[in-house]
Fold these 4 entries.
Entry 1:
Amino acid sequence: MDNEGPSRTALVTAYARAYHQIADRPRILTDPLAARLLGVTVDELTELGRPAADRPDSGAGSGILRLGVSDRPRRLFFAARARFAEDRVAEAVAAGVRQVVILGAGLDTFAYRNPHPGLRVFEVDHPATQAWKRQRLAASGIDQPERLTFVPVDFETDTLATRLEAAGFARTDPAVFVWLGVVFYLTPDATRTTLEYIAGQSEPVEVIFDYLQAADTDEERAQLQARAHRAAAVGEPWFSYFTPDHIAAQLRALGFTDVEDHSATDLIAGYLEGSAEFEGEPPQALRPVRILRASDSRASRRGEIA
């Protein structure tokens, strides 16, 4: 990521979510603010989604954005992982949770669509990304909700605990942490450090995050390595891979007793009402990607207490 705006990943994800609103049916995620935040029209999104042979090449920048709209499996996963997180947040709010932390919020719009009165949202991200986002919010006329707090964190100089505490996050209250599209780019040690912080919440806590599954075969390793090289070439290298058993063991060692883990294809199929679209071998873009929700035993009892 450069220091003057959002990362390539944040932009690709945002364009994918915006294009999903006009291109995919049934729609997995309803996000009427995605295109507005980006400042793009339906016609502009449609142009980006046209096959390469039907449109003039307008440069590498446009090519990056087209990745977000033209790669349908990836686009559906971006919508499905956001929907999964928002559904889990809704369940937590119904059981009494009143704060959610979005780590690496990027251009996410949940806080501006938040349907839960009383739910406080903390958006954590790099200061440059947040500055760009706030400019876009002002330019597009999207108001900052009273229950939203921006938490700028430069992990080279700041700590998550210090910045969240200064922002008013209650370490002693129940919370949900949403951490999407980030773990790929962290070292295993950095991932564990953040999970340790989350697990240290003194009241019921849940975390939702996606990760890359380690390859099992030589063919899978070669494919994953090729994709990793492409990510590194644009300045956003991948640093961590886990097996479902390994990450579940880590989470349980930290005190999480309930771990729900899904492959990307299963998650999408669940929201497409049993569609067989991805039956058999999943698309290469989705094969190594998984998403999970982990909670501690207190969270499982929260409904009895609320």
Entry 2:
Amino acid sequence: MTIIWTIIIGFIAGVIAKFLHPGDNEPSGFILTTILGIVGALVATWLGQAVGWYGPGEGAGFIGAIVGAIVLLVIWGAVSRKRG
């Protein structure tokens, strides 16, 4: 059941991040949007633990997942501009 919630929250976080940071060359589709949200949550957790905002074993919340996904979209846009 945890995996299903992770997928649902990841998808919602990915959709909100793509809404807040629109772009032409973004990953699209259900699977890539879900992966964007899930990886965004992992990035936010890692950064939060590195800075000291979260303790060991604590994860980023929903807002952290959205912020992490936006960070990934900014990086994706910078990398795709250099290639194109």
Entry 3:
Amino acid sequence: MSEQLLPGYIIRRGSTLERSLLLKFMHRTYEDLFPNEDFSHLEQTVKQYFSSDTPLWWVEEEEEQGAGSREQGEIPLHASFPMSNAHPPIACLWVGNAIDQVQGNRHAHIFILYVVPEHRRQGIGRALMRYVENWAIQRGDRQIGLQVFQSNKPALNLYNQLGYQTQSLWMIKFLSAEK
């Protein structure tokens, strides 16, 4: 079942059968930020955390009224996932659960929000954030968490504009194996 997210775009709930498509979107997310890295380890993340308890939504372009169907026998490039229409997803949102370590409350945690470059700056990311906020409110959550790379300025700007605040800093130190 799908619904309109924005004019021209629909959102639909994904299924656990779309694991490989989710993995492709995760790869694209990280490759955009770190183009020369190997992200084969993301498969383990999806394997460990993706389930019916961690909802996934896809955004697709809406079918145009009167648009013709594909020729019989023609297989689209994106045929590896269940299609609600003839267009491949242009954005994805995957959400899990986290526990607030101060208050002890369960809350939604955004694993990934990704919009393909050709569809950015059209309000899709903002609409997805509002969508997930409404979803979280309906299920009784009092907050949403996410992690964003400091170098991802467009995402930081979006989250700041939507009222997200830094609660903690994730700090790392690279260790040398040499003594």
Entry 4:
Amino acid sequence: MKRLVWSYGIGIVAIVAVLSFFFMMKGQTEKAVVSGNVPKAHAQGERVKQPISQFQAVQPHEADNEVKNVKNNMPEKADPPPFLVYIDPGHQSQANLEKEPIGPGSAETKIKVSGGTSGVVTKKPEYKLTLEASIILKQLLEEKGITVKLTRSSDNVDISNRERAELANNSKADLHVRIHADGSENASVKGFSVLTPAEDNSYTKSIYQSSLQASQAILTEVKKDQFVEADGIRYRSDLSGFNWSTVPVTLVELGYMTNPEEDRNLSDQAYLTKLMNHIADGVAAYEEMKKKKVKRPIKACD
């Protein structure tokens, strides 16, 4: 009987010891899980998956940073060059009657710079009027954010029509605007007009369409003014200043200085500024067309 009691007591002690050890180990494991030392899955007897950190996975915020870094390191797009208008105030104080080819490779020649006309009432020479008008136009265009250069800024120069075209060519101008005034033996003839390269001119085939777009844009703006008589567009293939040009070119005839009314108007600062404002609006409209690459239908203008 004593042996049976003894054996029973030992068994109870053994069971208590095993249970104590089991609960002690379970407590340590749970502490380890909480502290992060042992994966919870391992503690529950499951298969342990390899920590994702060992594969150097990129967290979402890190991916965003990578994208930002790539964008920051990409070269910035260069701003487009400014729109450049080259204005040529026609003529000069002294005509140059020497000859130059009318176009590249041409055997036909023409005088380098003619003397121009003059005011029947004001007696103002054309070269003075064209410089006054060009300076006004330059200021108006610059106020619109357009870059402007002049072929001349004084009257005492000697620049041929070919050389004036080449100045615009060498600067890769977006538009070459030639400023002139008309003259006629008939004093009653008057009117603003625009000259543009002819379609069948072999020298200006590459710039015909753009030149006509600029000419049309200018004429459209001038025609909005009911106080300015506008004749329309004339197509020319005999002008050295056109034939030597490799950039779009147009020539405006401000009016007839041989007509008393227009001669007085063109020497009136308010009228001249208003007229040049219309021309500036036309140039700006042409610039906008070029930016949008809008192809307007090309047709002859009356």
